[in-house]
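Hey team,

Sharing the Aspartic proteinase A1 run so nobody has to redo it. Sequence (128 residues) first:
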Amino acid sequence: MAFKKFLQPSAMQGNLLKFTMARGAISGFFSVDNVRVGDLLVKDQFDGILGLGFREISAGDAVPVWYNMVEQGLVKEEVFSFWLNRNADEEEGGEIVFGGDDPNHYRGKHMNVSVTKKGFLDILSYHS
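Structure output:
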């Protein structure tokens, strides 16, 4: 799924949510809606700010969209992957795949690494 088709909520309503992150403040509407992410329809999702972090750090105890994708059986595997295009001149800047990966964007095998701390996506770096 390309980034430009990423999030399409059907309604914007509810309370304004504001919080500060490491690099500044963020705000949006905190409400429940059905949220379309690419071809997936995530039901009863808190929308406004699409977070992929852990539930332990979510604002207002909102369930992050990834957890609802898994719980609603919308993904094949409990994995999401990113591809970021290094060529800034190309139209497609990157891709996120929920439920797997896109083998068109890598060669060889993936190496799984453990998340070292539930919070932000902290991982140990491995060099082969």
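The first helix runs from residue 65 to 71.

Ping me if you want the raw files.
A.
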